[in-house]
Amino acid sequence: MDFIRNQLEELGMSEPSIGYLSNIIMIIFIAMISVVANYIAKKIVLKTINHIVNSNRYRWGNIIVEKKLFHKLSHLVPAIIIYYSAYIFPSYQALVEKAAMTYMIVVMITVFNTLLNVFDEIYRSYEVSKIRPIKGYIQVAKIVLFIIGGIIVISNLIGQNPLIILSGLGALSAVLMLVFKDSILGLVAGVQLSSNDMVRVGDWIEMPKYNADGDVIDITLNTVKVRNFDKTITMIPSYALISDSFRNWRGMQVSGGRRIKRSIYIDISSIRFCTEEMVAEFEKIHYLTDYVTTKLEEIEAYNVEHQVNRESNVNGRQLTNVGVFREYIHQYLRNHPKINQDMTMIVRQLAPEDRGLPLEIYAFSNDINWSVYESVQADIFDHIFAVAQTFGLRAFQNPTGHDIVQLKEDKQYVREYS
Fold this sequence. Notes:
Elements: H1 2-10, H2 15-55, H3 59-66, H4 69-73, H5 76-84, H6 93-124, H7 128-131, H8 135-158, H9 162-169, H10 173-179, H11 181-195, E1 204-207, E2 212-219, E3 223-228, E4 233-237, H12 240-243, E5 247-248, H13 250-255, E6 258-266, H14 276-283, H15 289-305, H16 321-334, E7 346-349, E8 357-365, H17 370-387, H18 401-416
Antiparallel strand pairs: 1-2, 1-5, 2-3, 3-4, 6-8, 7-8
């Protein structure tokens, strides 16, 4: 500044003009230094750092470059130059220093915010992130960062100690609790969800209260994002997963088997004892040959031992078509390539209803994929409905309009030919 003033005096300028012009020249000079320093930081230093990071074999280097962490950090260079040049202007030194310091604080807040994003992105690249998501904690850290940063900025502008502002916030604690109620609840819920391993990213959950039925795609501080199977997105409050009930299908996905639990209703009037002709037909069925032979020997031995009167089928033990049919379904499932043979497999009768006798199939497919599972289930029941008549059984269904029309036609036919 003295050098500039001396040069202006030698040019014969008056004192007031020298003061204004020297200040303008110095401001331009500082601005040029800041621009050059910023250029060097971005085009040379930053480019070198990015090259070193990109040549690193670790993926975290690429993430740092993508998030532009060093690019944001480079904004400090011109601010530092301006801050340490403020003493040149004694009248405006305090104002310039406050402005420069405020800018540096804001830059550091953005740098730490980006650093948290980088850490979250790196953590997500590991499988453990699906089991222990930390996005909620990252968001809490950001809230704390912005609050502390805001307090420091305000204290710098008003020239007060940050602790004084913090002490004043104690009176506003009730307001803060109200404003950050959801965040506090979400934080507590996030800790419980994570520590108890209740839900992970990628889990299929079902929560009818919120019309949620699909895969968890994101877990944040306040919400859990679910992509439903109809491709809609449902946002569930994090604390709702603690306070309300929901179903997590992860157990099914991990087990490798998906349950088939469906019944075929048998018309009770079609159930009867097996005749010799029926037994002969059953012996021809591949899955029943050994069963029928063994069962007939067992029944014969029992009836002989107890001297059963064979003149009535009611006496002693007899094969029934529904019992043989139940065994056939069981053997069919035992030999089905898409049924998990290591899990529970039951073919059972339930209590009779007005729709007939429910014959329930309880088994597990060995493929949890939804489309494959539905295809396997449909194929099994296609076959069961088709073979029921072979055993002299009828599947129950309520009368339809076609049945009533057919009944009228049958009655008319009887009248004409009787």
